[in-house]
């Protein structure tokens, strides 16, 4: 018997061995390891290895994996030419979607669905997206592009290419932790989009392009930019109560709160809260953090009973701001990380594929006669 679940809520549509979520208890694990442990001890490269291989790498394996990523940082002349032909005022998420899609043009065998070969292609995309994003940001400012430094890990190299100078170890670490925390999250909307596309045996570039299109929506990854817009609209901590109450009275959603799966505190948000507080203190942005903390206090008072808590996007906004990222790069930074998760899911889907093809409950009329144009 077919049953209907609006928004596919509660429907199990795939197997995965990458991330486990217990939304009631607020648990997130990557391959069984609590997310907080990874954020404290791992690196983004190691986390991606874990997600793609189902285990932590041994010493030589991590070096080899990291070396492969670093050797693919540089854009081809064709890709760079495409970047330089884009309108400077393009929204960075449109740029990410367009240029990731265009990578299929440079690939002599884009249609391959053989898992080891798709994995190599995904690794190339993972290595290139920071260069694309940093390159576009510099290009739109009229600044020369910075060549990647293959001695640097992915997060640090991204900030280096963006700003033209090495980030402090604190900033590099904060960026790396953000990438770890955002890497995978069950069958979220963008991951589902990627799996749906590749289930037709379409190519990895099409699947990743669809995922980026999904992620930019304000109900999904786009919420981190919405959080920052909200924080900027509140003049001071003293104004938070009035601002939030007015929004709640209008039944507006507060960006960065609520989640389809969590009915408890998102464990990524609790880690980011600590990081945001420290970074805000170090960078003279304590007022921003205080506003966030006050919003949380009000929302917990008003909405915790309904299971609405801060999600990953809430404190990532303050964190990214303190790292010095411009507002419209927040969601693209989510892409840099989630390419790891999307690709792992694409590989899982290809390993045991069945075409996604749910049904729709038809609600229109039946047996209607065709009316000629002059009688309508
Ligand atoms: N602010 C205020 N009320 C909220 C919020 C919020 N952020 N989120 C949910 N609610 C309320 C709804 O108004 C609704 O109330 P009602 O029962 O009185 O009508 C109830 O909680 C259920 O909300 P739904 O939107 O039906 O829940 P759903 O599971 O579909 O929503 C979602 C999840 C889309 C994330 C929602 O909480 C939301 O829009 N949040 C704001 C956007 C956001 O932060 N998105 C990022 C999510 S994390 C990520 O994608 C990376």
Could you explain the architecture of this structure?
- The chain is mainly alpha-helical and 376 residues long.
- A hairpin with a 4-residue loop joins strand 1 and strand 2.
- It folds into two domains: 224 residues, Citrate Synthase, domain 1; 101 residues, Cytochrome p450-Terp, domain 2 (Orthogonal Bundle), CATH 1.10.230.10.
- The chain has a three-stranded antiparallel sheet.
- The chain contains 16 helices and three strands.
- The longest helix has 26 residues.
- The site of acetyl coenzyme *A has 18 residues, from helix 15.
According to CATH, what is the class of the largest domain?
A: Mainly Alpha
Q: Can you list the ligands bound to this structure?
A: acetyl coenzyme *A
Determine the mean pLDDT: 97
CATH fold title of the largest domain: Citrate Synthase, domain 1
Tell me the layout of helices and strands.
Elements: E1 19-22, E2 27-30, E3 33-34, H1 35-41, H2 44-53, H3 59-70, H4 77-84, H5 92-106, H6 115-140, H7 154-163, H8 169-182, H9 189-198, H10 204-215, H11 223-233, H12 240-249, H13 267-282, H14 286-303, H15 312-323, H16 330-351
Antiparallel strand pairs: 1-2, 2-3
Helix pairs in contact: 1-8, 2-16, 4-5, 5-6, 5-10, 6-7, 6-16, 7-8, 8-13, 8-15, 8-16, 9-10, 9-16, 10-16, 11-15, 13-14, 13-15
Bound molecules: acetyl coenzyme *A.
Acetyl coenzyme *A binds at residues 7, 219-221, 223, 253-260, 306, 308, 311-313.
